[in-house]
Amino acid sequence: MMIDLESDIRELREVFNSGKTKESSWRIKQLHGLLRILEDREDDICKALKQDLGKHHVESYRDEIGTSVKSVNNALDNLKQWMAPQKKLGLTPDLVPWSNRPTQMKVVQEYSSKRIRLPIAAFPSRASLVPEPLGVVLIISSWNFPIGLSLEPLIGALAAGNAVVLKPSELAPMCSSLLAETIRDYLDNTAVKVMEGGSDLGERLLRYKFDKIFFTGSAHVGRLVMSAAAQHLTPVTLELGGKCPAVVDSFSSSRDNNIAAKRIVWGKFGLCAGQACIGIDYILTEKKYLPNLVESLKRYIKQCYGDDPNGSLSISKIVNKKHFSRLTNLLDDPVVKSSVVYGGSCDEESLFIEPTILVDPPLDAAIMTEEIFGPLLPVITLESIEDSVNFIKARPNPLALYAFTKNENLQKRLVSETSSGTLMFNEAILQYAVDTLPFGGVGGSGFGRYHGKFSFDNFSHEKAVIMRGFFIDIWFRYPPWTDRKLQL
Ligand code: NAD
Question: Which residues form the Aldehyde dehydrogenase domain (predicted)?
Protein backbone atom coordinates (compact mmCIF):
# COMPACT_ATOMS: atom_id res chain seq x y z
CA MET A 1 0.00 0.00 0.00
CA MET A 2 1.40 3.37 -1.06
CA ILE A 3 1.66 5.73 1.92
CA ASP A 4 0.02 9.12 1.33
CA LEU A 5 3.01 11.14 2.46
CA GLU A 6 1.49 14.43 1.45
CA SER A 7 -1.52 14.15 3.74
CA ASP A 8 0.37 12.46 6.59
CA ILE A 9 3.04 15.15 6.69
CA ARG A 10 0.39 17.87 6.37
CA GLU A 11 -1.44 16.39 9.37
CA LEU A 12 1.78 16.33 11.39
CA ARG A 13 2.42 19.95 10.51
CA GLU A 14 -1.09 20.95 11.53
CA VAL A 15 -0.83 19.10 14.82
CA PHE A 16 2.52 20.69 15.55
CA ASN A 17 1.17 24.12 14.67
CA SER A 18 -1.73 23.57 17.05
CA GLY A 19 0.81 23.68 19.88
CA LYS A 20 -0.31 20.34 21.32
CA THR A 21 3.12 18.70 21.19
CA LYS A 22 4.70 21.58 23.06
CA GLU A 23 2.72 20.87 26.21
CA SER A 24 4.80 19.12 28.85
CA SER A 25 1.81 16.86 29.64
CA TRP A 26 1.78 15.65 26.01
CA ARG A 27 5.51 14.95 26.07
CA ILE A 28 5.26 13.04 29.34
CA LYS A 29 2.35 10.99 28.01
CA GLN A 30 4.32 9.99 24.91
CA LEU A 31 7.36 9.02 26.98
CA HIS A 32 5.13 6.91 29.23
CA GLY A 33 3.68 5.35 26.07
CA LEU A 34 7.19 4.33 25.02
CA LEU A 35 7.83 2.90 28.46
CA ARG A 36 4.65 0.85 28.24
CA ILE A 37 5.64 -0.49 24.81
CA LEU A 38 8.98 -1.60 26.24
CA GLU A 39 7.38 -3.21 29.28
CA ASP A 40 4.17 -4.69 27.85
CA ARG A 41 5.72 -5.88 24.62
CA GLU A 42 9.13 -7.09 25.80
CA ASP A 43 8.51 -10.62 24.57
CA ASP A 44 7.25 -9.46 21.19
CA ILE A 45 10.27 -7.19 20.78
CA CYS A 46 12.63 -10.04 21.65
CA LYS A 47 10.81 -12.36 19.24
CA ALA A 48 11.09 -9.80 16.44
CA LEU A 49 14.81 -9.30 17.15
CA LYS A 50 15.31 -13.06 17.15
CA GLN A 51 13.61 -13.38 13.78
CA ASP A 52 15.37 -10.44 12.16
CA LEU A 53 18.84 -10.87 13.63
CA GLY A 54 18.97 -14.05 15.68
CA LYS A 55 19.56 -12.02 18.85
CA HIS A 56 19.30 -13.80 22.17
CA HIS A 57 16.72 -12.45 24.64
CA VAL A 58 19.54 -11.36 26.99
CA GLU A 59 21.28 -9.43 24.23
CA SER A 60 17.98 -7.92 23.06
CA TYR A 61 17.10 -6.78 26.54
CA ARG A 62 20.56 -5.39 27.23
CA ASP A 63 21.11 -3.54 23.95
CA GLU A 64 17.66 -2.48 22.85
CA ILE A 65 15.04 -2.70 25.59
CA GLY A 66 17.06 -1.98 28.74
CA THR A 67 19.00 0.92 27.22
CA SER A 68 15.75 2.41 25.89
CA VAL A 69 13.99 2.03 29.27
CA LYS A 70 16.95 3.78 30.90
CA SER A 71 16.80 6.62 28.38
CA VAL A 72 13.03 7.13 28.68
CA ASN A 73 13.30 7.19 32.49
CA ASN A 74 16.16 9.65 32.26
CA ALA A 75 14.07 11.91 30.03
CA LEU A 76 11.06 11.63 32.35
CA ASP A 77 13.20 12.41 35.40
CA ASN A 78 14.79 15.48 33.83
CA LEU A 79 12.18 16.80 31.43
CA LYS A 80 11.01 19.63 33.64
CA GLN A 81 14.53 20.87 34.08
CA TRP A 82 15.40 20.47 30.38
CA MET A 83 12.29 22.40 29.32
CA ALA A 84 12.80 25.24 31.76
CA PRO A 85 14.19 28.41 30.22
CA GLN A 86 17.69 28.92 31.45
CA LYS A 87 17.10 32.08 33.36
CA LYS A 88 20.02 34.32 32.85
CA LEU A 89 20.04 37.35 35.06
CA GLY A 90 20.66 40.20 32.73
CA LEU A 91 20.90 43.05 35.20
CA THR A 92 24.61 42.63 35.12
CA PRO A 93 25.97 45.10 32.64
CA ASP A 94 29.23 44.17 31.10
CA LEU A 95 31.75 46.60 32.42
CA VAL A 96 34.70 44.97 30.70
CA PRO A 97 36.67 46.89 28.06
CA TRP A 98 34.48 49.68 27.02
CA SER A 99 35.63 52.42 24.75
CA ASN A 100 34.13 55.83 24.36
CA ARG A 101 34.17 55.32 20.60
CA PRO A 102 31.07 53.45 19.44
CA THR A 103 33.00 51.79 16.57
CA GLN A 104 35.32 50.14 19.08
CA MET A 105 32.62 48.97 21.45
CA LYS A 106 33.27 45.46 22.57
CA VAL A 107 30.01 43.66 22.90
CA VAL A 108 30.85 40.83 25.16
CA GLN A 109 28.13 38.28 25.54
CA GLU A 110 29.29 35.50 27.70
CA TYR A 111 27.07 32.96 29.31
CA SER A 112 27.92 30.77 32.15
CA SER A 113 25.63 28.44 34.04
CA LYS A 114 24.66 31.37 36.23
CA ARG A 115 24.26 34.45 34.07
CA ILE A 116 24.55 36.12 30.75
CA ARG A 117 26.57 39.27 30.69
CA LEU A 118 24.90 41.78 28.46
CA PRO A 119 26.57 44.82 26.93
CA ILE A 120 26.05 47.99 28.88
CA ALA A 121 24.25 49.37 25.84
CA ALA A 122 21.46 46.89 26.58
CA PHE A 123 21.16 47.94 30.24
CA PRO A 124 18.68 47.45 31.79
CA SER A 125 17.49 44.16 30.34
CA ARG A 126 17.03 40.51 31.15
CA ALA A 127 17.85 37.55 28.96
CA SER A 128 17.04 33.88 28.90
CA LEU A 129 17.56 30.85 26.71
CA VAL A 130 14.26 29.20 25.87
CA PRO A 131 14.33 25.73 24.30
CA GLU A 132 11.67 25.28 21.65
CA PRO A 133 10.84 22.25 19.50
CA LEU A 134 11.99 22.36 15.90
CA GLY A 135 8.73 21.22 14.31
CA VAL A 136 8.16 18.09 12.23
CA VAL A 137 11.26 15.92 12.30
CA LEU A 138 12.30 12.86 10.33
CA ILE A 139 14.20 9.97 11.93
CA ILE A 140 15.69 7.36 9.60
CA SER A 141 17.22 4.40 11.40
CA SER A 142 19.33 1.36 10.61
CA TRP A 143 18.72 -2.38 11.03
CA ASN A 144 21.43 -3.53 13.42
CA PHE A 145 19.75 -2.23 16.59
CA PRO A 146 16.39 -1.68 14.97
CA ILE A 147 14.50 -0.94 18.17
CA GLY A 148 17.16 0.92 20.15
CA LEU A 149 18.38 3.09 17.29
CA SER A 150 14.79 4.06 16.46
CA LEU A 151 13.72 4.77 20.03
CA GLU A 152 16.84 6.57 21.27
CA PRO A 153 16.41 9.55 18.90
CA LEU A 154 12.61 9.31 19.18
CA ILE A 155 12.88 9.83 22.95
CA GLY A 156 14.81 13.06 22.37
CA ALA A 157 12.44 14.24 19.63
CA LEU A 158 9.34 13.67 21.78
CA ALA A 159 10.90 15.08 24.95
CA ALA A 160 11.70 18.22 22.97
CA GLY A 161 8.06 18.46 21.80
CA ASN A 162 8.31 17.67 18.09
CA ALA A 163 5.97 15.87 15.72
CA VAL A 164 7.83 12.90 14.25
CA VAL A 165 8.07 10.65 11.22
CA LEU A 166 10.08 7.52 12.02
CA LYS A 167 11.32 5.38 9.15
CA PRO A 168 12.88 2.18 10.46
CA SER A 169 15.04 -0.04 8.28
CA GLU A 170 13.37 -2.48 5.93
CA LEU A 171 16.18 -4.96 6.62
CA ALA A 172 14.72 -5.73 10.06
CA PRO A 173 11.10 -6.17 8.89
CA MET A 174 9.65 -7.78 12.03
CA CYS A 175 10.99 -4.98 14.20
CA SER A 176 9.85 -2.36 11.72
CA SER A 177 6.27 -3.65 11.70
CA LEU A 178 6.25 -4.06 15.50
CA LEU A 179 7.38 -0.43 15.87
CA ALA A 180 4.63 0.67 13.48
CA GLU A 181 1.98 -1.29 15.34
CA THR A 182 2.98 -0.39 18.88
CA ILE A 183 3.73 3.29 18.26
CA ARG A 184 0.34 3.60 16.55
CA ASP A 185 -1.37 1.95 19.53
CA TYR A 186 0.53 3.48 22.45
CA LEU A 187 1.43 6.98 21.22
CA ASP A 188 -0.49 9.91 19.75
CA ASN A 189 -0.61 8.84 16.13
CA THR A 190 -1.66 12.24 14.89
CA ALA A 191 1.77 13.50 15.92
CA VAL A 192 4.02 10.43 15.65
CA LYS A 193 3.94 8.29 12.54
CA VAL A 194 6.01 5.26 11.67
CA MET A 195 6.41 4.87 7.92
CA GLU A 196 7.65 1.50 6.77
CA GLY A 197 9.68 0.95 3.65
CA GLY A 198 13.11 0.88 2.06
CA SER A 199 15.26 3.26 0.08
CA ASP A 200 12.39 4.21 -2.25
CA LEU A 201 10.33 5.44 0.70
CA GLY A 202 13.41 7.15 2.15
CA GLU A 203 13.95 9.00 -1.13
CA ARG A 204 10.29 10.04 -1.30
CA LEU A 205 10.37 11.30 2.27
CA LEU A 206 13.51 13.34 1.62
CA ARG A 207 11.66 15.42 -0.99
CA TYR A 208 9.52 16.95 1.77
CA LYS A 209 10.49 19.75 4.05
CA PHE A 210 11.28 18.63 7.59
CA ASP A 211 12.64 20.77 10.37
CA LYS A 212 15.34 18.27 11.25
CA ILE A 213 16.55 14.98 9.80
CA PHE A 214 18.20 12.54 12.16
CA PHE A 215 19.85 9.79 10.13
CA THR A 216 21.57 6.62 11.32
CA GLY A 217 23.21 4.55 8.59
CA SER A 218 25.92 4.45 5.98
CA ALA A 219 28.04 7.36 4.73
CA HIS A 220 26.77 6.70 1.22
CA VAL A 221 23.11 7.29 2.17
CA GLY A 222 24.19 10.02 4.61
CA ARG A 223 25.45 12.03 1.63
CA LEU A 224 22.07 11.62 -0.13
CA VAL A 225 20.27 12.73 3.04
CA MET A 226 22.47 15.77 3.39
CA SER A 227 22.09 16.92 -0.19
CA ALA A 228 18.29 16.43 -0.07
CA ALA A 229 18.16 18.35 3.21
CA ALA A 230 20.13 21.21 1.66
CA GLN A 231 17.23 21.90 -0.72
CA HIS A 232 15.07 22.84 2.28
CA LEU A 233 17.87 24.20 4.48
CA THR A 234 16.99 21.43 6.92
CA PRO A 235 19.58 20.73 9.63
CA VAL A 236 20.78 17.15 9.83
CA THR A 237 22.45 14.85 12.29
CA LEU A 238 24.35 12.01 10.65
CA GLU A 239 25.14 9.01 12.82
CA LEU A 240 27.45 7.07 10.52
CA GLY A 241 29.98 4.32 10.96
CA GLY A 242 33.52 3.51 9.88
CA LYS A 243 36.35 1.46 11.26
CA CYS A 244 36.76 1.62 15.05
CA PRO A 245 40.27 0.51 16.08
CA ALA A 246 41.30 -0.94 19.42
CA VAL A 247 44.89 -0.30 20.47
CA VAL A 248 45.97 -3.19 22.67
CA ASP A 249 48.99 -2.85 24.93
CA SER A 250 50.30 -5.57 27.20
CA PHE A 251 49.78 -5.37 30.97
CA SER A 252 52.15 -6.58 33.65
CA SER A 253 49.30 -8.34 35.44
CA SER A 254 47.82 -11.44 33.82
CA ARG A 255 44.45 -10.51 35.36
CA ASP A 256 44.45 -7.21 33.45
CA ASN A 257 45.49 -8.96 30.24
CA ASN A 258 42.63 -11.43 30.67
CA ILE A 259 40.04 -8.76 31.38
CA ALA A 260 41.22 -6.78 28.35
CA ALA A 261 40.92 -9.85 26.12
CA LYS A 262 37.42 -10.63 27.44
CA ARG A 263 36.27 -7.06 26.85
CA ILE A 264 37.70 -7.13 23.33
CA VAL A 265 35.91 -10.39 22.48
CA TRP A 266 32.70 -8.89 23.85
CA GLY A 267 33.25 -5.57 22.08
CA LYS A 268 33.79 -7.33 18.79
CA PHE A 269 31.45 -10.32 18.69
CA GLY A 270 29.08 -9.71 21.60
CA LEU A 271 26.85 -7.12 19.96
CA CYS A 272 24.90 -8.33 16.96
CA ALA A 273 27.87 -10.49 15.85
CA GLY A 274 30.03 -7.44 15.17
CA GLN A 275 27.31 -5.66 13.18
CA ALA A 276 27.61 -2.62 15.42
CA CYS A 277 28.75 0.88 14.50
CA ILE A 278 30.84 1.15 17.68
CA GLY A 279 32.00 -2.48 17.60
CA ILE A 280 35.75 -3.01 17.46
CA ASP A 281 36.71 -3.21 13.79
CA TYR A 282 40.37 -4.18 14.12
CA ILE A 283 43.17 -4.37 16.69
CA LEU A 284 46.53 -2.61 16.67
CA THR A 285 49.17 -4.23 18.84
CA GLU A 286 52.91 -4.60 19.20
CA LYS A 287 54.49 -7.58 17.40
CA LYS A 288 55.85 -9.09 20.59
CA TYR A 289 52.43 -9.07 22.27
CA LEU A 290 50.76 -10.97 19.43
CA PRO A 291 51.12 -14.63 20.56
CA ASN A 292 49.67 -14.01 24.03
CA LEU A 293 46.93 -11.75 22.74
CA VAL A 294 45.75 -14.19 20.07
CA GLU A 295 45.79 -17.08 22.56
CA SER A 296 43.69 -15.09 25.04
CA LEU A 297 41.22 -14.00 22.35
CA LYS A 298 40.79 -17.62 21.21
CA ARG A 299 40.27 -18.77 24.76
CA TYR A 300 37.50 -16.24 25.43
CA ILE A 301 35.81 -16.80 22.08
CA LYS A 302 35.58 -20.50 23.04
CA GLN A 303 34.37 -19.62 26.51
CA CYS A 304 31.60 -17.38 25.14
CA TYR A 305 30.49 -19.39 22.11
CA GLY A 306 31.73 -22.94 22.73
CA ASP A 307 33.68 -25.23 20.41
CA ASP A 308 30.92 -25.12 17.81
CA PRO A 309 29.74 -21.51 17.70
CA ASN A 310 27.37 -22.30 14.82
CA GLY A 311 25.13 -24.00 17.36
CA SER A 312 25.48 -21.20 19.90
CA LEU A 313 22.41 -19.16 20.80
CA SER A 314 24.67 -16.42 22.11
CA ILE A 315 25.80 -15.06 18.75
CA SER A 316 23.54 -13.21 16.32
CA LYS A 317 23.24 -14.14 12.67
CA ILE A 318 24.27 -11.98 9.73
CA VAL A 319 21.28 -9.87 8.77
CA ASN A 320 20.76 -11.20 5.22
CA LYS A 321 22.38 -12.95 2.24
CA LYS A 322 23.68 -9.70 0.77
CA HIS A 323 25.62 -8.84 3.91
CA PHE A 324 26.67 -12.49 4.30
CA SER A 325 28.22 -12.39 0.79
CA ARG A 326 29.78 -9.00 1.48
CA LEU A 327 31.53 -10.48 4.52
CA THR A 328 32.57 -13.77 2.92
CA ASN A 329 33.89 -11.81 -0.07
CA LEU A 330 36.22 -10.00 2.33
CA LEU A 331 37.78 -13.39 3.06
CA ASP A 332 37.92 -14.49 -0.60
CA ASP A 333 41.24 -12.84 -1.37
CA PRO A 334 43.81 -15.69 -1.00
CA VAL A 335 46.26 -13.47 0.89
CA VAL A 336 43.54 -12.42 3.32
CA LYS A 337 42.41 -16.02 3.69
CA SER A 338 45.93 -17.11 4.53
CA SER A 339 46.00 -14.58 7.36
CA VAL A 340 43.15 -16.33 9.21
CA VAL A 341 44.51 -17.82 12.45
CA TYR A 342 41.20 -18.75 14.04
CA GLY A 343 37.67 -19.45 12.81
CA GLY A 344 36.74 -18.65 9.24
CA SER A 345 33.81 -21.04 8.77
CA CYS A 346 30.61 -19.71 7.25
CA ASP A 347 27.17 -21.25 6.74
CA GLU A 348 24.99 -19.46 4.22
CA GLU A 349 21.82 -21.30 5.17
CA SER A 350 21.86 -20.15 8.78
CA LEU A 351 23.61 -16.86 7.87
CA PHE A 352 26.30 -17.74 10.40
CA ILE A 353 29.89 -16.54 10.31
CA GLU A 354 32.25 -17.87 12.93
CA PRO A 355 34.15 -15.40 15.14
CA THR A 356 37.32 -15.11 13.10
CA ILE A 357 40.78 -13.71 13.85
CA LEU A 358 43.16 -12.65 11.11
CA VAL A 359 46.75 -11.56 11.62
CA ASP A 360 48.22 -8.88 9.38
CA PRO A 361 45.96 -9.05 6.34
CA PRO A 362 47.26 -6.61 3.67
CA LEU A 363 46.45 -3.03 4.61
CA ASP A 364 45.15 -2.32 1.11
CA ALA A 365 42.74 -5.29 1.16
CA ALA A 366 39.02 -4.45 1.47
CA ILE A 367 38.95 -5.90 5.00
CA MET A 368 41.29 -3.10 6.07
CA THR A 369 39.87 -0.29 3.95
CA GLU A 370 36.11 -0.85 4.43
CA GLU A 371 34.02 -1.02 7.58
CA ILE A 372 33.80 -4.76 8.38
CA PHE A 373 30.47 -4.77 10.24
CA GLY A 374 30.64 -8.47 11.07
CA PRO A 375 32.53 -11.05 13.17
CA LEU A 376 35.92 -10.80 11.43
CA LEU A 377 38.71 -9.39 13.59
CA PRO A 378 42.01 -8.38 11.96
CA VAL A 379 44.96 -7.89 14.28
CA ILE A 380 47.58 -5.55 12.84
CA THR A 381 51.05 -5.72 14.34
CA LEU A 382 53.31 -2.72 14.79
CA GLU A 383 56.96 -2.41 15.76
CA SER A 384 56.00 -0.22 18.69
CA ILE A 385 52.62 0.38 20.31
CA GLU A 386 53.32 4.12 19.95
CA ASP A 387 53.10 3.66 16.16
CA SER A 388 49.36 3.18 16.61
CA VAL A 389 48.94 6.97 16.90
CA ASN A 390 50.19 7.62 13.36
CA PHE A 391 48.35 4.57 12.04
CA ILE A 392 45.05 6.02 13.32
CA LYS A 393 45.85 9.56 12.24
CA ALA A 394 46.45 8.40 8.67
CA ARG A 395 42.86 7.07 8.43
CA PRO A 396 39.35 8.60 8.64
CA ASN A 397 38.16 9.69 12.08
CA PRO A 398 36.52 6.72 13.79
CA LEU A 399 33.17 6.84 15.58
CA ALA A 400 34.90 5.17 18.53
CA LEU A 401 38.53 4.60 19.38
CA TYR A 402 39.41 2.11 22.09
CA ALA A 403 42.77 1.74 23.80
CA PHE A 404 43.64 -0.93 26.32
CA THR A 405 46.69 0.55 27.96
CA LYS A 406 48.00 1.96 31.20
CA ASN A 407 50.81 3.76 29.41
CA GLU A 408 50.14 7.38 30.35
CA ASN A 409 52.23 8.77 27.56
CA LEU A 410 50.29 6.77 24.98
CA GLN A 411 47.00 7.76 26.61
CA LYS A 412 47.97 11.43 26.40
CA ARG A 413 49.05 11.12 22.79
CA LEU A 414 45.80 9.39 21.81
CA VAL A 415 43.78 12.12 23.52
CA SER A 416 45.70 15.00 21.99
CA GLU A 417 46.78 13.68 18.58
CA THR A 418 43.84 11.62 17.33
CA SER A 419 40.24 12.53 16.62
CA SER A 420 37.23 10.25 17.12
CA GLY A 421 33.59 10.47 18.23
CA THR A 422 34.52 8.81 21.51
CA LEU A 423 37.83 7.68 22.97
CA MET A 424 37.56 5.00 25.60
CA PHE A 425 40.35 3.45 27.64
CA ASN A 426 40.35 -0.16 28.82
CA GLU A 427 36.72 -0.82 27.87
CA ALA A 428 34.53 -1.00 24.80
CA ILE A 429 30.93 -0.15 23.83
CA LEU A 430 29.83 1.14 27.26
CA GLN A 431 29.95 4.76 26.12
CA TYR A 432 26.63 4.11 24.38
CA ALA A 433 24.91 3.77 27.76
CA VAL A 434 26.32 6.92 29.30
CA ASP A 435 23.56 9.53 29.23
CA THR A 436 25.72 12.29 30.59
CA LEU A 437 28.13 12.21 27.65
CA PRO A 438 27.30 13.05 24.05
CA PHE A 439 27.24 10.24 21.51
CA GLY A 440 28.10 10.96 17.89
CA GLY A 441 30.79 10.99 15.25
CA VAL A 442 33.30 13.42 13.83
CA GLY A 443 34.48 13.80 10.25
CA GLY A 444 33.67 10.67 8.25
CA SER A 445 31.83 9.06 11.17
CA GLY A 446 29.18 11.78 11.11
CA PHE A 447 28.21 14.86 13.05
CA GLY A 448 25.68 15.97 15.62
CA ARG A 449 25.33 14.41 19.02
CA TYR A 450 22.63 12.87 21.14
CA HIS A 451 21.74 10.76 24.23
CA GLY A 452 20.32 12.18 27.46
CA LYS A 453 20.09 15.98 27.48
CA PHE A 454 22.12 16.06 24.26
CA SER A 455 19.16 14.36 22.49
CA PHE A 456 16.78 16.99 23.85
CA ASP A 457 19.14 19.71 22.61
CA ASN A 458 19.53 17.97 19.26
CA PHE A 459 15.80 18.30 18.61
CA SER A 460 15.43 21.80 20.12
CA HIS A 461 16.27 25.32 19.14
CA GLU A 462 17.62 27.31 22.03
CA LYS A 463 16.02 30.69 21.47
CA ALA A 464 17.72 33.75 22.89
CA VAL A 465 15.11 35.98 24.50
CA ILE A 466 16.01 39.48 25.61
CA MET A 467 13.62 41.73 27.53
CA ARG A 468 14.54 45.41 27.50
CA GLY A 469 13.10 48.14 29.70
CA PHE A 470 12.53 51.81 28.93
CA PHE A 471 14.30 53.16 31.97
CA ILE A 472 17.42 54.37 30.19
CA ASP A 473 17.71 55.52 26.59
CA ILE A 474 21.00 56.81 25.29
CA TRP A 475 20.59 59.82 23.02
CA PHE A 476 23.78 59.38 20.98
CA ARG A 477 22.81 56.04 19.46
CA TYR A 478 20.41 57.76 17.09
CA PRO A 479 21.18 59.78 13.93
CA PRO A 480 21.88 62.38 12.82
CA TRP A 481 25.60 61.61 13.07
CA THR A 482 27.58 64.62 14.14
CA ASP A 483 31.19 65.37 14.97
CA ARG A 484 30.19 65.64 18.60
CA LYS A 485 29.00 62.03 18.62
CA LEU A 486 32.32 60.98 17.08
CA GLN A 487 34.16 62.51 20.02
CA LEU A 488 32.20 60.50 22.58
P1 NAD B 1 21.92 2.33 5.18
O2 NAD B 1 22.53 3.66 4.94
O3 NAD B 1 21.91 1.37 4.07
O4 NAD B 1 20.39 2.48 5.66
C5 NAD B 1 20.02 3.29 6.74
C6 NAD B 1 18.59 3.76 6.54
O7 NAD B 1 18.53 4.58 5.38
C8 NAD B 1 17.57 2.64 6.34
O9 NAD B 1 16.39 2.98 7.02
C10 NAD B 1 17.34 2.65 4.85
O11 NAD B 1 16.07 2.20 4.44
C12 NAD B 1 17.48 4.12 4.53
N13 NAD B 1 17.86 4.40 3.14
C14 NAD B 1 18.57 3.59 2.31
N15 NAD B 1 18.73 4.21 1.11
C16 NAD B 1 18.11 5.41 1.20
C17 NAD B 1 17.92 6.50 0.31
N18 NAD B 1 18.40 6.46 -0.94
N19 NAD B 1 17.25 7.57 0.73
C20 NAD B 1 16.76 7.63 2.00
N21 NAD B 1 16.88 6.63 2.89
C22 NAD B 1 17.56 5.53 2.50
O23 NAD B 1 22.68 1.77 6.46
P24 NAD B 1 22.43 0.40 7.24
O25 NAD B 1 22.90 -0.72 6.39
O26 NAD B 1 21.07 0.35 7.78
O27 NAD B 1 23.40 0.60 8.49
C28 NAD B 1 24.76 0.29 8.44
C29 NAD B 1 25.61 1.51 8.58
O30 NAD B 1 25.09 2.35 9.60
C31 NAD B 1 27.01 1.19 9.00
O32 NAD B 1 27.91 2.02 8.31
C33 NAD B 1 27.03 1.52 10.49
O34 NAD B 1 28.30 1.82 10.99
C35 NAD B 1 26.11 2.69 10.52
N36 NAD B 1 25.53 2.82 11.85
C37 NAD B 1 25.83 3.91 12.59
C38 NAD B 1 25.32 4.04 13.87
C39 NAD B 1 25.65 5.22 14.74
O40 NAD B 1 25.04 5.36 15.79
N41 NAD B 1 26.58 6.08 14.37
C42 NAD B 1 24.49 3.05 14.38
C43 NAD B 1 24.19 1.96 13.58
C44 NAD B 1 24.71 1.86 12.31
Answer: 14-465
Neighbours of 485 (CB within 10 A): 15
The rounded Å distance from CA 167 to ligand 1 centre is 11
Ligand 1, atom 18, residue with closest C-alpha: 199
Considering the entire predicted model, what is its pTM?
A: 0.94
Question: Does the annotation count 277 as an active-site position?
Answer: yes
The one catalytic residue among 46, 175, 244, 277? 277
Mean pLDDT by 10 residues, the chain (488 residues): 88 98 98 98 98 97 97 98 79 42 39 60 83 98 98 98 98 98 98 98 98 98 98 98 97 95 97 97 98 97 93 93 98 96 96 97 98 98 98 98 98 98 98 97 98 98 91 89 89
Q: Is there a contact between 23 and 188 (Cβ–Cβ < 8 Å)?
A: no
SS (H, E, C) 174-236: HHHHHHHHHHHHHCCCCCEEECCCCHHHHHHHHCCCCCEEEEECCHHHHHHHHHHHHHCCCCE
CB 165 within 8 A of CB 201: no
- CA of 426 from ligand 1 middle (Å) equals 29
Note if 272 is an active site residue: no
Q: Whose CA is nearest to atom 13 of ligand 1?
A: 199
Q: Return the ligand 1 atom nearest residue 143 CA.
A: 26
